[in-house]
Design goal:
The chain is mainly alpha-helical and 99 residues long. It has 3 helices and no strands. The longest helix is centred in the last third of the chain and has 52 residues.
Length: 99
């Protein structure tokens, strides 16, 4: 107890003994790994950025699918129109041959 009181009375003595960092963080990393470390701590590699990229990819895929569906639908309608015209001509010929 007396040791604790002595430390409390002397404000110059600190509870923790530690050194100061002289170099900026990451400067002791090997050069080959430095880019990887900097990439990891950069803002563009965060979860939000990954989510935004995922949303962008999803939006592009959806847009491509919508365009593909539109093209397929227009092709289907064109085939249907041609078929209806062909069948109408057949009906007209058969009705003319019967008369």
């Amino acid at each position: 107890r007396t040791q604790i009181r002595r430390k409390m009375k002397n404000p110059n003595e600190s509870s923790f003994i530690c050194g100061t960092v002289k170099k900026p963080w990451g400067s002791n990393v090997v050069i080959a790994e430095k880019s990887r470390v900097l990439k990891r701590i950069s803002k563009k590699d965060g979860a939000l950025q990954k989510h935004m990229n995922w949303l962008k990819d999803l939006q592009e895929k959806r847009k491509k699918l919508d365009e593909k569906k539109k093209v397929e639908e227009s092709e289907r309608l064109e085939r249907k129109r041609i078929f209806q015209e062909r069948e109408a001509k057949k009906r007209l010929r058969s009705s003319n041959s019967n008369n």
